[in-house]
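Hello forum,

I keep getting stuck at the same step: I have a sequence, I want structure tokens, and every attempt I make locally crashes halfway through. Rather than fight my setup again tonight, could one of you with a working pipeline run this one for me? It's a single chain of 464 residues.
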Amino acid sequence: MTQPNVIIRFAQASEQTDGAIKRIVGFSPVKSLLPLYDSTDLDANPRSAKVGAVTADILDTLEMSRDLYHFKSKGLLLGTASYVALERNRYELQFDDPSAEGVLDGGHNLLAVGLHILKKVMPEQAWRKIRLWEDLRDAWDEYRSDIDLIKDELDFMVPVELLVPSNINDDEVLERFESSLLDICAARNNNAQLTQETKSNKKGFYTEPRKRLPKSVADRVEWKTNEWESDDVRPIKARDIIALAWIPLNKLAEEGVLPRELSVTPQNIYRNKGECSKMFERLMERSDVTTEIAGGRYELHNQSVASAFGVLADLPALYDKIYAEFPEAYNAIGGRFGGNSIVKIYDPTKRKTANNKSDYVATQPYTYFTNQPVRWRYPDGLIMPLVYGLKGIMTVIDGKVTWATDPYDFLDRNLEAIASAYRLVLDMARFDPQKLAKNQASHEFAVSEYEKAFFKEGAKRLVA
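Reply #2:
Ran it on my machine without issues. Output:
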């Protein structure tokens, strides 16, 4: 949703330009920054700020030596691709992409200054309950008219750095600026992990995976931070999709199609998805994988990598299939999946009469990617090695990875046998999902079991 433009004024300012970026640096009267608090678009940095030791120190400075605040603080870093330079050192800003534009750094300063202002107009007991940016925004809306009455008392300066395109009429400059802004936001701010997927999406690295996925899945993926707006169904995180992509990409690396260093350890697909996203960007930035077409955007030309995305298209549904069917497969070989305390069962009828209702869930569980109702709820760490095991039925032909057999039919025929072997791993880990999912050996064991089942079927066909 488009928000009203924000106009800020510098009391003193200087401009510096280099390449696609113009930097405007100076001091702004705090009352000229009030529109920043009125904007609901500020998602990139303030949302990560919360009341604590940092904000307490800033509030002390504002109470004890307000006239020196602009020398003691690094202030705010703002960035936007859409702006108009007005007269008298004023700039009109429009934040069209809240995941990448707005306050790029200085969220704690913005929060502390807002708290300092609100303390003048609201009861102290209510003021002390403000802990997060969202709390401050709610209080700000409630007391906005009172703040207008004390504007003349807000007489201190805030250091502000504003980053804008060097030429807003040049499309290539604009695209390069937008790409650079994501890197700057990540470098300036400790919350860089949240922007990794946004950066890759902006560069076009997610275009092909998004095309290959079933539309019902792709439409639910939050391809960039804070993109998801629906409350009906929880979004799929882009990093979860990218982590799965490393299963066929690892297969390509093992076969020598991709360099060995361009692979991730199996356990990182579960425990360190941020690292999977970083490695994915490293892969997609290679000149033998993509071509830069314009302004920091890239287009895939490597057919081997493209083939991995073709395999990826099946992995979300296969993940959900394993999650939904493994408990019954485990029970079929004499196990008692629901006997473990970390496993919960959805059975409203039994729950009503059960002595221990904690064994049951009150609400219907759904699979993560395809949103299908299931009977069981349990940590996905229990089956992550089995998901990675699907690599055992992938093959590489002429430099392209593909399925060696239909994976859905294969699971229908073999999941019970694989579960029988995998039971040993579960018992050794004592049903600890962390031990299972963070252990490389459990992943490689699962791969070998898929391979055994596949070769066994092949041998039977030869005999027949």
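The radius of gyration is 27 Å. If your local run keeps crashing, start a new thread with the error log.
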